[in-house]
Amino acid sequence: MGRGLQLGKIFGIPFRIDYSWFVIFLLITTSLSLFIFPDAYPDWGAAQYWIVGIATSLLFFASVVAHELAHSAVSIRSGIPVKSITLFIFGGVAHIAREVTHPASELKMAAAGPLCSIALCGLFSGLWWVSRDFSVHLSALAWYLAIINGMLAVFNMIPGFPLDGGRVLRSILWMITSNYRRATRIATMTGYGTSYLFILGGIAIFFFFGLLNGLWLVFIGFFLNSAARSSYRQSMVRDALKGFVARDVMTKGLPSIPRNLTIKELVQSQLLISSSPCFLVADGERLEGVLTLHQIKELPREDWDITTVGQAMTPVEKLKAVKPSDDVISMLERMEEGTLNLVTVVEEGRMLGLILRENVIQFAYRLQELRT
Ligand SMILES: [Zn+2]
Predict the structure, then answer these.
(1) Beta carbons of 312 and 288 less than 8 angstroms apart
(2) Known catalytic residue: 68?
(3) Pseudo-torsion of CA 70, 71, 77, 82, nearest 10°?
């Protein structure tokens, strides 16, 4: 979900729309304007279907933003900054800068979104109630927004991690057991369970009732399944790395190569015998840059004999440095924020080693395996 449109800021929080969101916006607008409103109000004109359809769709979009802002407001109040809000095909995500450290804050933060959706459901129900005597258009719009916000609240309260309901469940388990790992594990298992229910239920609806809606459920099921897997992995990595500093995870004693070597020469002379994930490009004592295995793989093979190490490397000026005593988890968060794959560990102007993101993740997995 890396691509999207940056739309400025709401209350200081950067706000992005993922391209996949336009699919759902089109789907909702067309199904309202071409099917739902024409079925319910056969005497309207075509323009009326489209105007009310687009207005309903835009207010639905505003409702999702309000839901995410509710999460964000509670998060900021508990002292955790919100990096951005992204809207995508299944709704919205508020990216918080770090994980919550207290179950009570997580409970409040997770519950805020669905509570906001329930409040909006109530608000639009009220609007429907007062407008139904004087404006059929306004009441139609209010009715669908009440339903859609109600559905948003219900869907998000499904107790599968990483949905809001899963986070609520985790925070409650966390309070009861005082064990974050066990709480995360149970909430994730519920997430997997729910995702399989969606997939199987969707298949059953499709085959036994011949309804295409079933496929939509299968689609949601797969999404929940992969979301549960990746957020479980992420929280386990953070958990494993707790207490470690940059010095513990850095790679030392990397092989040093000259900048005028071609990639082909490097591959022939070093790569086949060395297991190092990267090379220091140096002129005697002076470090000029770093070349990773990943950068070499990215280069087209036919360019290997015309490209030099100096051309392919990341020059030293572009490398970010951390201190050996820096906390690994916050370092990893900064790397993820800046999409950095490596940082150098520098103390008093002297480079002690390098940290590759993939190595830190592998390190976390190894620790995890030793513990379970
Ligand atoms: Zn939510």
Answers:
(1) no
(2) yes
(3) -120
Question: Quick check: 152 and 63 in contact, CB under 8 A?
Answer: yes
Hey, how many other C-beta atoms are within 10 angstroms of the C-beta on 365?
14
User: Is the model's pLDDT at 274 over the cut of 80?
Assistant: no
Q: Which of 71-85, 110-124, 331-345, 354-368 is the most confident on average? A: 110-124
Cβ distance 81 to 56 under 8 Å?
Answer: no
- CA-to-CA dists, residue 189 to 166, 196, 232, 287, 369, angstroms: 10, 11, 9, 48, 19
Of 163, 148, 149, the C-alpha closest to 194 is 163
pLDDT in tens, 199-228: 999 998 888 887 777 788 888 888 888 888
Instruction: Label residue 350 exposed, middle or buried (CB < 10 Å: 0-12, 13-18, 19+).
Output: exposed
- What class is the 246-371 domain? alpha beta
Q: How far is the CA of 351 from the centre of ligand 1 (A)?
A: 43
Q: Exposed/middle/buried for 46, CB within 10 Å: 0-12, 13-18, 19+?
A: exposed
Asked whether 231 and 260 are in contact (CB, 8 A), the reply is no
Q: What is the pLDDT of residues 295-329, one digit of tens each?
A: 888 888 888 888 888 888 888 888 888 888 888 88
What b/e sequence results for 67-104 when a residue is b if at least 16 CB atoms lie within 10 Å of its CB, and e otherwise? bbbbbbbbbbebebebbbbbbbbbbbbbbbeeebeebe
CB crowding 260-274: b at 16 or more within 10 Å, else e: ebbbebbeeeeeeee
Closest CA to 76 of 94, 103, 61: 94
Task: List the structure tokens of 330.
Answer: 């916050």
Q: Ligand 1 centroid to 92 CA: how many Å?
A: 7
Identity of residue 279: F
CA 40 to centroid of ligand 1, rounded, Å: 30
pTM higher than the cut 0.85: no
Rounded to the nearest angstrom, the distance between the alpha carbon of 314 and the centre of ligand 1 is: 39
Report the C-alpha gap between 52 and 240 in whole angstroms: 51
Residue of 68, 288, 347, 358 with catalytic role: 68
